[in-house]
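Our consortium's second objective concerns turning raw sequence data into structural hypotheses that experimental partners can test. To show how far this objective has progressed, the report includes one record in full. It was chosen at random from the queue rather than selected for favorable results. The single chain below, 462 residues long, was entered without modification.
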Amino acid sequence: MPNPSAPRNNGKQQDPALRRKNFDEVAHTFTKEEAVAEADRCLHCPTHPCQNACPVGVHIPDFIAFIKAGDAGAAVSEIMKTSLLPAICGRVCPQEKHCEGHCVLKAKFGAVNIGGLERYAADTARAEGALKPPVPAASTGKKVVCIGSGPSSLACAAELRRAGHDVTVLEALHAYGGVLRYGIPSFRLPREVINKEVQTVQDMGVKFKTDVLVGATIKLDELLKEYDAVYIGSGAGLPMMLGIPGENGVGVYSANEFLTRINLMQAYKFPQTDTPVQVGKHVVVLGGGNSAMDAARCAMRLQPETVTIAYRRSREEMPARAAEVEHAQEEGIQFEYLVTPKEILQDEQGRVTGIRFTRNQLGEPDERGRRRPVEIPGSDFVQPADTVITAIGQRPNPTIAKTTPALKTTERGVIALNEKGETSMPGVYAGGDIIRGGATVLLAMNDGIAAAGRINEYLKGK
């Protein structure tokens, strides 16, 4: 019989005093005993509310039942019927907003730790040699190219290959994974996990090419001459700017640059690696999303005296995952809520010395239901800082759109889709941050899977 009243197991973690000085993974994978005990809490609800809330439709009660029976291989095979990146999703998916947020045990006993169980299934099955990629259908003779190698393109490429198409993935950088690699720190998502998940897609027969910047190295129109369909999943790697005085000062980074230096170029190992990164004694991160948490936690590991996250709303409105906020607090990161940056102060040499803020109070809700920050007159103050990291959002790189006049975009610079999910160009599809301007890994994957279905229908007609 299930044991739903047993306390939720959040898994073991690296001690905060130690982890704030290294880039090793914070959370530990369940042991078999821990996983079976947590799986035993699941009621296997006949209506499957957790599964219904999963953007990619993972068969959650079914894979948990396999874990309960001690079969990690069968569990991961069940997951991979709809999602081919279980080790990644188990680590970085915001389960609290999707599956776990709809678990019937949440209110009284705490939701089943679905993310931890998914991670356990993937890690354990791979270690046991029981993780097998799906076998593609018979060849259709059709060729498809996916631009970008982030979660959206990986999901799309895998589904297209599963359907029997010849699939190639083009990556602009020198390593695969897109935002998974350059945006998410290794203490949340180890590089070897990304490598192994990409290898699963490669083992299905998907081809990968690095150092191909579509729009520069090759034009989209040229790809359409070689391939029967194109999927654009190139993400949103262009940082948004503050638009305040001093943001071009020495010591100001965008979160995109800072995280890319740390995560992709491994600047924290300089001079053993070629790329440096510089932080001073006092670091201030502007923003309240997951990128802000990642940037602040990376900065803390470079051992400044203080790291502060400054956010213009309250803790309740902060969009970052609750677990990431808690980890940041455990690691000694300070939080300054209800403040708006007005100016980044500099010395005579242009080096950052501080930030002038205005304090806020919360007003009426905006279009997304979050209360608007309203500045309080005369409440200005200066926060000392010699390093500032801006993490206020990002938008798509315009390279593809600028070199492809027939590809329509919106005022925000994202690719425009019609009600059928099609771009303005026949045979060209898009998903992930390139159509959203910023989203979670799981929503990006869902876009890729949905687009693969549309491409399959398009190729049948073609």
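The partners drew two points from this record. The mean pLDDT is 95. DSSP finds 17 helices and 16 strands in the chain. Both points have been shared with the crystallography group to help prioritize constructs.
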